[in-house]
User: Which sequence fits this backbone?
């Protein structure tokens, strides 16, 4: 009996730790279901239906979304505050979605290598951008950004950085910290 209680305690401890580490719930919904629930505002089970033949959306062999581009998929994204957490996404583009702010969940997508917010109305890049340490490409073209936060310059893997068609007032000297940078755009 005591052993059973001990096992139950260990399982509960695991679940709580997982929740605290990932910052997300431990639901077992597929990534496609989370995406369609977000887009449709429903709670239906879509399994992995988005993983085959959907332009602008790709999955790995286990059905986890790895690539999402709303314009390629011809998807108008609703209120981004409830954007789902995708644990394996590496490439995310949310273009022309009239965003004024970057949703907090984006900064929890630590597997991201490419992030594209082209053609929005973003004014401020939060310091939490530094959480995306795997980023190689970052595109903020055609927004309302005036200042580049210092935290951008902690992203040591950045190779491509785009701020064209913004209102950048000063290019901080810390830009020299981006030793992997190959292309930088301000036009």
Assistant:
């Amino acid at each position: 009996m005591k052993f059973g209680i001990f096992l139950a305690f260990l399982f509960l401890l695991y679940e709580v730790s997982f929740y605290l580490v990932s910052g997300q719930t431990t639901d077992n919904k597929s990534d496609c279901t989370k995406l369609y629930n977000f887009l449709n505002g429903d709670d239906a089970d879509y399994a992995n239906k988005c993983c085959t033949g959907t332009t602008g959306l790709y999955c790995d062999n286990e059905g986890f979304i790895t690539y999402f581009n709303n314009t390629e998929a011809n998807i108008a994204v609703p209120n981004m505050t409830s954007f789902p957490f995708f644990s394996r996404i590496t490439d995310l583009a949310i273009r022309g979605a009239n965003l004024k702010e970057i949703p907090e969940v984006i900064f929890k997508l630590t597997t991201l290598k490419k992030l594209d917010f082209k053609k929005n109305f973003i004014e401020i890049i939060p310091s939490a951008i530094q959480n995306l340490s795997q980023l190689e490409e970052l595109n903020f073209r055609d927004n309302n950004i005036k200042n580049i936060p210092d935290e951008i310059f902690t992203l040591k893997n950045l190779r491509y950085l785009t701020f064209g068609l913004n209102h950048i007032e000063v290019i901080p000297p810390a830009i020299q910290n981006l030793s992997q940078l190959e292309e930088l755009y301000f036009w």
User: Anything to note?
Assistant: Residues 2-22 form the longest helix (21 residues). The mean pLDDT is 88. Residues 90-185 form a domain with the Leucine-rich repeat, LRR (right-handed beta-alpha superhelix) fold (CATH 3.80.10.10). The helical segments are 2-22, 31-40.
